[in-house]
Write a structure and sequence with these properties.
Number of domains: 2
Order of helices and strands: HHHHHHHEEEEHE
Strand content: 5-15%
Distance between the termini: 108 Å
Radius of gyration: 39 Å
Strand order of the largest sheet: 1-2-3-4-5
Number of strands: 5
Length: 244
């Protein structure tokens, strides 16, 4: 009958060295690669020392390495989770901050629009232009001199006819955040020697928000809104086509 060959036990010095290395690595187990290496070597040393004769010292070192490594890895995991939670809460508070939101909105307003969004903004600019014309006519009815409002802020303060304070603020915000820049020029209030009050209202796309060849809009006291593409407000006033 053949006897089963015995596997020779690893040399005591080698196993003890492995335990000592595991113990040394466990001291810096807060660095994940070293911590993982300490755990692996600690388990290997513990497994090989148990059958080895007189392996008590090495066994104690291997167990100590495992305890230290596992403890440090657990503490590091808890610390990382706590730091992530604090970072997440800080980031959420930072994101909700009013000043930061305004900065993000300002940054968004500098991003170029795609073709479809640009067309929508053109239609919105036409709508705002007509509303500003209506405000001009309403202001003229209530002015003693029969003149128009010559400053954009005057029109925004007055707001559309019959609008509430909240609606006036909403309209003003819409005008200010538009990718079009609205301006009133050549405004002549009623004076001696001037037969009729007049104004020119222009809506010019803001680069780089609006793409090239975007429509430029203009209007005057006649209430007719005109447009031209790829030009400037002067081109619109000279040869712009009436908006249908």
């Amino acid at each position: 009958m053949n006897a089963t060959p015995l596997v020779p036990a690893p040399p005591k010095s080698t196993v003890h060295s492995m335990a000592r290395v595991a113990l040394g690595l466990s001291i810096v187990a807060f660095i994940p690669p070293f911590g993982i290496a300490a755990v692996v070597l600690g388990h290997m040393a513990e497994k090989r020392i148990e059958p080895a004769p007189q392996g008590g010292n090495g066994n104690a070192m291997a167990r100590a390495a495992l305890w230290i490594a596992y403890l440090q890895l657990a503490l590091i995991t808890i610390a990382v989770l706590m730091a992530w939670s604090m970072f997440h809460e800080t980031a959420e508070g930072f994101r909700r901050d009013a000043l930061v939101q305004r900065m993000f909105r300002a940054s968004d307003q500098m991003q170029p629009l795609d073709a479809e969004s640009a067309r929508e903004e053109e239609m919105s600019a036409v709508n705002i232009t007509y509303q500003l014309i209506a405000i001009e006519e309403e202001m003229r009815k209530h002015r003693e001199d029969g003149g128009y409002g010559c400053q954009l802020y005057q029109l925004l303060q007055n707001g559309p006819e019959g609008s509430t304070d909240a609606e006036k603020r909403s309209f003003a915000q819409r005008v200010m955040q538009s990718p079009y820049m609205f301006r009133i020029s050549n405004c002549n209030p009623v004076k001696t020697g001037i037969p009729e009050a007049a104004y020119i209202l222009t809506a010019v796309p803001r680069p780089p928000r609006m793409p090239d060849n975007s429509a430029v809009f203009c209007a005057d006291q006649t209430g007719v809104v005109r447009q031209t593409r790829g030009g400037i407000s002067l081109d619109c006033l000279k040869s712009g086509e009436a908006v249908r």
